[in-house]
Amino acid sequence: MKIMAENTRLYDLFQPDHYDVYLDINRAKKTIAGTTTINGHASQPVIKLNQKYLHITAVTVAKQPVPFTVKDDEEAVEITLPSAGDVQLSVNYTAPLTDTMMGIYPSYYEVDGEQKQVIGTQFETTAARQAFPSVDEPAAKATFSLAIKFDEHPGETIIANMPENHEKDGVHYFDETVRMSTYLVAFAFGELQSKLTETKSGVRVGVFATKAHQPKELDFALEIAKRAIEFYEDFYQTPYPLPHSWQLALPDFSAGAMENWGLVTYREAYLLLDPDNTSLDMKQLVATVITHELAHQWFGDLVTMKWWDDLWLNESFANMMEYVAVDAIHPEWKIWKLFQTSEAPMALQRDATDGVQPVHVEVNNPAEIDSIFDPAIVYAKGSRMLVMVRALLGDQALREGLKNYFAAHQYNNAAGNDLWQALGDASGLNIGQIMHSWLEQPGYPVVTAKVNDQGQLVLSQRQFFIGDGQDAGRTWQIPLNSNYPAAPQIMADQEVVLGDYQELRQAAGKPFRLNVGNNSHFIVKYDDQLLQDILDHADQLDAISQRQLLQDLRLLAAGQQVSYADLIPLLTRFADSHSAIVNAELYHIANSLKMFVTPGSAEEKQLKRFFNQLSQGQVARLGWLPKTGESNDDQLTRPYVLNAALYSHNEEAIKAAHQLFVDNREQLASLSADVRGLILKNEVQNFGSHELFDQLLTAYQQTTDPSYKADLRMAIPTTTDPELIKTIIGHYKDASVIKPQDLRAWYRGVLANNAGQEAAWSWLREDWQWLEDTVGGDMEFASFITVSAGVFHTPARLAEFKEFFEPKIDTPGLTREIKMDIRIIESKVTLVEKEQAAVNAAVAKVI
């Protein structure tokens, strides 16, 4: 990416101190009329403010017009002031109310058949400029006074970052904010319901949603939000800086959630849930999203990155803290296991592709800013880095360092090095030096552990690739976390000799292992002797270690450093594990075997028999419905094994699921949320009809339960009826059926269905321009490319993918994604060609 010269930032020319933002919003006409008055200091007479889609009618200083030039290509307006120095300027403008889910926008929903809308905002990364002219850069912190008028009718509520202090002539005036960045300004209005509480320290906490939802759906979020703020105030040893913390569920929302200071916005699915019928994994997901956003109220909002190149620091830190907080609130969930099944594998998979971005990326224009939101790197890998740091520091030094960091930088901005300095001062460790090797270079190492010809135990590191990779000789400072004291705490060299293996083994009395706890961002390749020793004692390993063993071997197989065929006997060995995280990895491997078979072939029938063999014992043990008092692991394991049983076409499983459907035909939403999606999928695949399709699609449109909606969205696209597939794709552009925020999931569902793949892929290519026009300004736009690459693994699809996307390779924000995804598909095509015969022979051998 291009490096942005310091002198091109608008903040260098003009430093705002305070904004008075007046907005008159007309939903019926879809217009905004605004006046923004800014107090600040101009370093020179000619300054620029950011604006996008604004029709500026006048700029005045001391009530006198001054010259201005709109520069749409720069998303700016250039203003000539009478002189440099302190100034107060006012900008009058109008703007459209758009449906892009960016800026100020309407969300659509229905109550009792009546169409309604709620207005909300989404300003990160650079969409505040669509609402009001500003220096729309993170470092340009200022205070804001909002005054908002709208086409109001009785029964409507308006909320914002700060409390409302009065209303006059239909204008709602809000308290002045603390110093903050433009992208954190937020407000919303409409017919909202709410539930409120208060923390021990007197912070008002509220959950807001449309009246399409049952009031009880707000309870879980309210409890988590209250307890999270109390936890963070204690952990950070820094009070929550605002009078209130509102959580708002928006029916249309492009991201998962957004940490606007004092008014956090969420997708409905990530805030609201039915306490009487929601699966444990969904509760965990909602809890971690809430605690992630609330972690940002300090780390991101109180102290903000200076520029977007340190975005990773905001997100990685919140990603780690969400687990720290939920673990404190619900210790019985053992939430760090979720970190092992979500963040760790996502980061390891993505970061092994040559061309991946480093965690810390230089960034220039707005399209590039959005493109660095690679969740596997910015969130998952970054949070692994910080978990690594936490393990090195311990919580006492971490908390001390954070307290000092907040005190030094509150209401201002900081860079990554400021955090390392604070943590280093608190711990006496050179954190910056250790982190530099992980943040500034892409990828991660595989550490090879082997006994050499002289009987010495030797470790060596080199970059790990899945697919072709250019080895640049990179090395990392690796926290080894070994169970043998002979291994150093940090491995900085390419190779290290630990000593005579037999002596070390005898002294330790257990197999040699590295990365115990799986907190460091590397994988291990043990030689045959060391691996066999671990496998011989695998029953003594804890669940994380068993899972890690399978995970590392899967990645080594994907990187063609071991044979995929060698993994198959291990699946049989661990098939009866009672650990959900072991089963998650086991079925990750098992599902990846599907790429080695052609649908409908004898090899696929053989693979289905293998799936039946893997799952039948667990299905018999767990059954279809949750049992009173069963463990969390059993609850979380059940969907994996039932899904495998359905894929294997196990007649008893199909029959049992069908009976549950028949028994609950009139109240499908009341089916146990743990298995509801699988029951619906079974019905669509094995008992499908046009009547059933219509019933489920109608339920999808009508239900307000986000969890049930997700189950329907997963099940409906698995139909094999070509006519129904055509109907689904026909709804892709109809926002009244499929909201743009949910389109990617519907696209992926049909694409992953062999019967629908051609139709979905044709749609993407034919309607790419429409897609770009509809969600192109969204940071998730590039993920349509990602999900396509995730499904494709044949030479024919690779050729089509390249033919379509290579001409788009220079599109800002898509370049890295296209290049990486071509490599990802190429690596799978090569792997299948090389391993197909051996994998299918290995499957035949174990069934």
UniProtKB/TrEMBL annotation:
It is an enzyme of class 3 (hydrolase). Binds 1 zinc ion per subunit. Residues 514-826 form the ERAP1-like C-terminal domain. Its cofactor is Zn(2+). Residues 15-184 form the Aminopeptidase N-like N-terminal domain. Coiled coil: none annotated. It catalyses: Release of an N-terminal amino acid, Xaa-|-Yaa- from a peptide, amide or arylamide. Xaa is preferably Ala, but may be most amino acids including Pro (slow action). When a terminal hydrophobic residue is followed by a prolyl residue, the two may be released as an intact Xaa-Pro dipeptide. Gene3D superfamilies: 1.25.50.20, Neutral Protease Domain 2, tricorn interacting facor f3 domain. Residues 220-438 form the Peptidase M1 membrane alanine aminopeptidase domain. GO terms for molecular function: aminopeptidase activity. Keywords: Aminopeptidase, Hydrolase, Metal-binding, Metalloprotease, Protease, Zinc. It holds the Pfam family Peptidase_M1. Its EC number is 3.4.11.-. Belongs to the peptidase M1 family. This is Aminopeptidase. It comes from Limosilactobacillus antri DSM 16041.
